[in-house]
């Protein structure tokens, strides 16, 4: 599925100018059909998978209880 720069910006939650800059700099792969840059949406699948893993790790970290007895040694 190919998306325009505007559609991609909306899907990623980024400004259109930033996505356009990424396309021109080669950070986002695209095809130019003479009028528009078309972006294959499947190139972001890995990004979304990694983002979900990071969210899960953060949730796990947030839900880990703080130990009741913290062993703090005063070295004074």
Can you offer a commentary on this structure?
With 76 residues, the chain is mainly alpha-helical. It has one domain (2-63). The protein is 47% helix and 11% strand. The chain contains 3 helices and 3 strands. Strand 2 and strand 3 (37-40) form a beta hairpin. The longest helix has 19 residues, at 45-63. The mean pLDDT is 88.
Key features?
76 residues; 47% helix; DNA-binding; SinI_DNA-bd; DNA binding; HTH_17
- Let me know the average pLDDT: 88
How do the strands of the widest beta sheet line up side by side? 1-3-2
Query: How much β-strand is present in the residues?
Result: 5-15%
The topology string of helices and strands comes to EHHEEH
Secondary-structure topology with pairs:
Layout: E1 2-3, H1 5-12, H2 16-24, E2 31-32, E3 37-40, H3 45-63
Antiparallel strand pairs: 1-3, 2-3
Helix pairs in contact: 1-2
